[in-house]
Design brief:
With 438 residues, the chain is of the alpha/beta class. The chain folds into 3 domains: 83 residues, SRP54, nucleotide-binding domain (Four Helix Bundle (Hemerythrin (Met), subunit A), Up-down Bundle), CATH 1.20.120; 196 residues, 3-Layer(aba) Sandwich (Rossmann fold), CATH 3.40.50; 128 residues, Orthogonal Bundle (434 Repressor (Amino-terminal Domain)), CATH 1.10.260. It is 56% helix and 9% strand. The protein has an 8-stranded mixed beta sheet with strand order 3-2-4-1-5-6-7-8, with helices on both faces.
Length: 438
């Protein structure tokens, strides 16, 4: 996401590279390139102009310290202004009541129902037990889709197949949540192919009937300025409390994310990417600004790792590594843990300095399939003792995994190199401990 914008901004900053100071001339050139980059990203012209005017004013009012280059200072200024443009502070959900009610709105095809499932999964992962309410009574299979998602994540879904009154269904769902003790109800409403009065009247009636704590509008990030227009129309009727950007893993130029807060004056609260139920992130303006500028997002990367961190498994692995007993089965388990964290390319993009360098790199979670297939074609004894893999065994593994003996040999060499590195690190740590005991 934002690959094109990141590359253009990186190019704009090169104007200041090697400059000894910030001047009106070099700032004007850089600002012009930034404005072009924002317009190409489908950012509203007025917003792009206001943004670059603020950047220019801030830059010309700064004195460059001897320890900071003009390029570094300008990057910081743009980072600060981008953070403000994206919303400034992170705004979470404000929930209260018994139960708390979240109304989900959006156009058909925006990813509204999928987001409802992801949000329920988000709450469940935090030890809460939400109830999903199926109030999209028009789209074929909408109720069934929500029920499938609910079953997938282990969350109950309230639905009435014959009832076509979403107001009644929503009210009954809340009553059911009170009876069952669900602290949160997520109400998935109907979408349309475009904004129409009947749709707005209906969802307004649902809002009036259930008085939700939060009204989240799901907009397709790939639609650019159309997403901003959609948000304006919904906000005029519903007074939404926040926006969810869906499909942020697609070919999005970033215009919606960069424009929506300024136009609608409502915060982006979540970003949704991919189809997996775990592919949902709380929106942090400062972290997103850093990623757009190629500065990475280590905080989010660490949080994702912690969310998928198994302390018992980690302790077990530390003991095995200390004894140099780390085997191919452990390696397979670690690959599967990494995959749970999300898209590999997105994770790599969170590492500072990596950003645009992997833009054209063909790497995703599917890249692990060949490695997994090879290891899974081995017996448990072979995974524990890779030294057992002679020529005949390697041929069997290659045939079973749909790969070649060369692929098996390559994996084994990489694994042995990794074990040697672990052994060397263990020796270094033991040496330090012995030295510290003298």
């Amino acid at each position: 996401m934002f690959d094109s914008l990141s590359k253009r901004l990186e190019g704009a900053f090169k104007t200041l590279k090697g400059q000894g100071r910030i001047s009106e001339i070099n700032v004007a050139e850089t600002v012009k390139e930034i404005r072009r980059a924002l317009l190409d990203a489908d950012v509203n012209y007025k917003i792009a102009k206001t943004f670059t005017d603020k950047v220019k004013e801030e830059a010309l009012g700064q004195n460059v310290l001897t320890s900071v280059s003009p390029g570094q200072l300008f990057t910081k200024i743009v980072n600060d202004e981008l953070t403000q443009l994206l919303g400034g502070e992170t705004e979470g959900l404000k929930l209260s009541g018994n139960p708390s009610v979240i109304l989900i709105a959006g156009l058909q095809g925006s990813g509204k129902t999928t987001f409802s499932g992801k949000l329920a999964n988000h709450f469940k992962s935090k030890g809460q037990k939400p109830l999903l309410a199926a109030c999209d009574v028009y789209r074929p299979a909408a109720i069934n889709q929500l029920q499938v998602l609910g079953e997938q994540i282990g969350v109950d879904v309230y639905a009435e197949i014959e009832n076509k009154n979403p107001v009644e269904i929503a009210k009954k769902a809340i009553a059911e949540a009170k009876r069952l003790g669900n602290p949160i109800v997520i109400v998935d409403t109907a979408g349309r192919l475009s904004i129409d009065q009947a749709m707005m009247d209906e969802i307004a009636a649902v809002k009036t009937a259930i008085q939700p704590n939060e009204i989240l509008l799901v907009v397709d990030a790939m639609t650019g300025q159309d997403a901003v227009t959609t948000a304006e129309n919904f906000n005029n009727v519903l007074d939404i409390t926040g926006v969810v950007l869906s499909k942020l893993d697609g070919d999005t130029r970033g215009g919606a994310a960069l424009s929506i807060k300024s136009v609608v004056q409502r915060p982006i609260k979540f970003v949704s990417h991919g189809e997996k139920m775990e592919a949902l992130d709380v929106f942090h303006p400062d972290r997103m600004a850093s990623r757009i500028l190629g500065m990475g997002d280590i905080v989010s990367l660490v949080e994702k790792a912690q969310d998928n961190f198994d302390e018992v498994e980690a302790a077990r692995l530390r003991k095995k590594m200390a004894k140099n007993k780390f085997d191919l089965d452990d390696f397979l388990n670690q690959l599967q843990q990494i995959k749970k964290m999300g898209n590999i390319k997105d994770l790599m993009g969170m590492i500072p300095g990596v950003g645009n360098k992997i833009k054209d790199l063909d790497v995703d979670n599917e890249s692990f399939k060949g490695i997994e297939a090879i290891i899974q074609s081995m017996t448990m004894q072979e995974r524990t003792n890779p030294e057992l893999l002679n020529g005949n065994r390697k041929s069997r593994v290659a045939k079973g995994s749909g790969s070649s003996v060369q692929d098996v040999n390559k994996l084994l060499k990489q694994f042995q190199d990794m074990r040697k590195m672990m052994k060397a690190m263990n020796k270094m740590n033991m040496g330090k401990m012995m030295g510290g005991n003298k």
